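=== Structure Prediction Worksheet ===
Name of assembly: unnamed complex
Input type: mixed (protein and possibly other molecules)
Chain count: two
Listed entries:
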Amino acid sequence: MFDVNEVRADFPILSRSVRGVPLVYLDSGATSQKPTQVLDAERFFYENSNAVVHRGAHALAEEATDAYERARQTISSFVGAQVDEIVFTKNATEGINLVAYAFSNATDKARQGLDVDQRFVIGPGDSIVVTEMEHHANLVPWQELCAKTGAQLRWFGITDEGRLDIQPGIIDSTTKFVSVVHQSNLLGTINPVREIMDMAHAVGALGMVDLCQSVPHMPVNVQELGADFASWSGHKMLGPTGIGILWGRTELLNIMPPFLTGGSMIEMVHMDQSTYAPAPQRFEAGVPMVAQAIGLARACEYLSDLGMENVFQHEQELTAYTLAELAKIPGVRVIGPLDTRDRGSAVSFVVDGIHPHDVGHLMDAMGVAVRVGHHCCWPTCRRFDVPATTRITTYIYNDKSDIDQAIAGIKSAQEFFGASVAVSA
Amino acid sequence: MSEDLYQEIILDHYKNPRGKRVKIDSLAQSYQVNPTCGDEITVDVGQNSDGTLLVSYDGQGCSISQASASVMSELINGKTPEQAAPIQAAFMELMKSKGQLEPDEDVLEDAIAFAGVSKYPARIKCALISWMALSDAQIKASLTATTTTRDE
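=== Predicted Assembly ===
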């Protein structure tokens, strides 16, 4: 196991103060902080090798291209992928949209009588399956695809315990695509994605997994998920903003219509038509995010040095502690699984009589940064009949003292609003 | 600590809301939502026979959003659109002030308590949402001031 204090020393931001008190950062589910090593990797690139990749024959262009493609190699190894299966996107949302638009564009082309792979053609009578615990990023693109094509959107519901309610008959012979979150960013639930992907494949559908909250926090091997596509972001796993990853099976990536078109993604261009490069270049139109890729690769190395099994264990301990401490406060209710079985470190809760915005504000006054709101999971909030929640998310640089400060913040909010008396009476 | 934000007046309006869910003959309604936190508010406007405004609201949200709606209904109910306009303009101006404006108590009355909110960018929308719903409902009902006389 790693030493949290040694880890913390790599994150300069964690030693600053906010509102006149030391910062306690418990919002890594929104974005993680960045270690000096990642910042240095980006700076080193800009100071030494900055050039546009995949064009130009000068020395810097070669170095930049080499660094960019080495980053792809490092990132692919981190998740057990083949290097050509890794597409750089702006963020996880773009990766999901890229797949949704492959369906949309293939369907449009099929209507024009063009030759496209039928697995990506969708229309009335077909269905797409998601879950009620999806982030808006893995819900709205599929709503939009259904609206454009006439396909039906279906979803698995959630049990009162915050688990996926995997009912038979939702995935059936009409299903062409299934997209599921690996770990819920609101509930913390870790879903049996392999089982769901197998269900999708059994009816001939393709499947995708949203890995935003799992790749940063636990060992993930994309080959073992049983999925065809996966998407996640760099900034939640110590990397820079502005970079996400789409993983896809090469066979599929190479037959999908492109999402964004233009320079870099072409094979041959004439005035009236063009052909496209194989994946991943096929999906990387324009000048890509080189420094971000290098920074993200460095983040992968940083996490590998700690060991993802250790990262997971560390967070399991913190999550168990968080759940136990929250359970001691009258009037606090956790939304999501109450134990650490198949559960990650996102812990959402509501405080009786106090709106999450007010809870978050009073925690912030004690230096504690937590997320408040619907966490881009509005339907999940509705499922539990809460307008919003307050959410604690931990990472490698947090320890029990951070949780203690959060607990003190919640109690101060109860005292301030006079709610604790009413509830415990 | 947070006393600059959570003034006593705000907490009082939050715990004892005025004008919430009052039955009125509504001429227009506006539903507004804060997409970052899910707070919702519905404001109805009507008109008394003397031309003054009737305001009712309903919704759920944080203390700032609920107290602001309560203060708004107290301030605007029974005012003509011409009398209401300078109050509405003054509140908007206060919210944009980043805590740099000394609010005019003669115009804003209890609403001066929201001066501290303007220092917290994440909370300004909370305070403004009901006021924006009111303006929207007034436009729909054609109950806006014919002349803006906010310096009077």
